[in-house]
Design brief:
Oligomer: single chain
Distance between the termini: 43 Å
Number of helices: 12
Shape: globular
Largest sheet: 6 strands, antiparallel
Strand order of the largest sheet: 20-21-22-29-24-27
Length: about 475
């Protein structure tokens, strides 16, 4: 049996301003109609003997992961929550321990980042089948991407002897090379890009970790032993996991083990690690442009222009990246896309909310978007999913006015319950317990106007919640 382990904890800030820490790139539609996480789920359909996936994600992404699994038609995905990020070696250890507890230790773990693109799913499935034989025999398989250009942004894998059809000894890992060295690797052959995808037995990985990084293995075991199930999520012990050393699987295990092998993969892979790679993953027009959203151009070529809302008009530019969101605009030369991280560093040092928060904030019941914020007021556009409801709550410093745009709202205010339909409104005074529900079969859309001395999101006293969020 092959158990997919999807790693969904990354923040993806190299694709700012679309990717934010609270809504990173695995949840975005960057190449096609599905999000990158949904594409990863869907990619597994053609692999035989595949089990329901196990997703390892950060605590704050739990409802997003569950929603994207639902969209992809995955009904029984397990979601294992990390209280803090500790890189891939501990995350995979938690997954291996969970699989070993409920299934055989010789189950194969197919470890996949959840934010990559693969255009040839059939080739990917063939590579997994090739790797499965080696993994079943106790090898730790990594998938090496067949390079088609001298890329300097990836680490490389040097392959060795041909062990069997499609499986090669792993001679060594190579750090990101300069342009001259990368060109030499391409000319010599036998070098592959490091994809970050792996296949091995759960018990093999744990045994290797015990030998090569025993401190990580011990911390992961302690955290998993004290885990508990919360609704659809598995929570590990936070204190034990915080004590775990952060390290990647490459450094902790793969570069040290004598049992690593590589399976070449030519399947149209991209890690979408920059805006340049996002542009390359999408179809271009006759002028070599990728235009997304409300965009008009004149005398523009070789550019990627994305509009999330407003009209973007471009004139006389070449090889540029333009990304517009409600609260930020990125303009960059294509040759400098790797330097977006320098802008992110400035945002971090300035503690700018544009790095953390997405204009549309996602919640288990739906989402909201700020339309306007002033000194004593805040206006939101709120969407509530069918059958969903917000927590029973109260505010100390603000009143709220709700106007239904479409759908039907069930409102609790104090000791009263009543229904509102399109074009109807209500007022929630300061200090009143209240709840908003959508009893209908279509999305409830409303405008909320907050007024008061303080309109921050932390002015919520939560009494009851259908999604297991802590009372406050």
């Amino acid at each position: 049996m092959i158990v997919p382990v999807l790693l969904a904890g990354g923040s993806g800030t190299r694709l700012w301003p679309l990717s934010r820490e609270q809504h990173p790139k695995q949840f975005l539609r960057l190449a096609g109609e599905h999000s990158l996480l949904e594409q990863t789920f869907l990619r597994l359909r053609d692999i035989p003997e595949i089990a329901e996936p196990l997703v390892v994600a950060r605590e704050e992404y739990r409802f997003l992961v569950a929603e994207h699994a639902r969209r992809a038609g995955v009904k029984a995905a397990k979601i294992l929550l990390e209280p803090v990020g500790r890189n891939t070696a501990p995350a995979i250890a938690l997954a291996a321990l969970e699989v070993s507890r409920h299934q055989d230790g010789d189950s194969l773990l197919l470890v996949l980042p959840s934010d990559h693109v693969i255009s040839d799913d059939a080739a990917f499935a063939r590579a997994v089948r090739t790797a499965a034989t080696a993994a079943s025999s106790g090898k730790l398989v990594t998938f090496g991407i067949t390079p088609d250009l001298p890329e300097t942004g990836f680490g490389y894998i040097k392959s060795g002897a041909d062990l069997s059809t499609g499986v090669y000894a792993l001679e060594r890992f190579v750090e990101k090379p300069d342009a001259t060295t990368a060109a030499r690797y391409l000319a010599e052959g036998g070098y592959y890009w490091n994809s970050g995808m792996f296949l091995f037995r759960a018990d093999t990985y744990l045994a290797q970790l015990e030998t090569l990084a025993p401190d990580i293995a011990a911390s992961a075991r302690a955290a998993h032993a004290a885990s508990n199930r919360d609704a659809d999520f598995l929570r590990v012990d936070a204190e034990a996991f915080r004590a775990c050393r952060a390290d990647s699987i490459d450094y902790a295990v793969m570069e040290k083990t004598a049992d690593a092998v590589v399976v070449p993969l030519a399947a149209g892979w991209s890690d979408l690690g920059s805006w340049g790679s996002v542009a390359d993953a999408n179809a271009r027009d006759a002028n070599g442009n990728v235009l997304q959203g409300d965009v008009i151009t004149e005398d523009v070529s070789g550019s990627f222009i994305h509009s999330q809302g407003r009209l973007v008009a471009a004139l006389g530019i070449k090889d540029q990246i333009v990304v517009e969101t409600k609260d930020a605009v990125l303009v960059a030369d294509k040759s400098r896309v790797q330097d977006v991280k320098k802008l992110v560093q400035q945002l971090e040092s300035g503690q700018r909310r544009e790095l953390q928060e997405h204009p549309r904030v996602y919640r288990p019941w739906g989402s909201y978007e700020d339309l306007e914020i002033g000194p004593r007021y805040r206006v939101k556009h709120i969407l509530v999913k069918p059958g969903a409801r917000l927590s029973l709550q109260m505010h100390h410093h603000r009143a709220e006015h709700w106007v239904v745009v479409s759908g039907t709202a069930k409102v609790t205010c104090g000791d009263k319950e009543f229904m509102l339909s399109e074009d109807q409104s209500t007022y929630i005074p300061i200090g009143h317990k209240h709840r908003l529900e959508n009893p209908g079969k279509m999305t409830l859309e409303l405008i909320e106007v907050q007024t008061g001395s303080y309109v921050g999101e932390d002015d919520i006293v939560r009494f009851e919640d259908a999604y297991g969020r802590a009372k406050s």
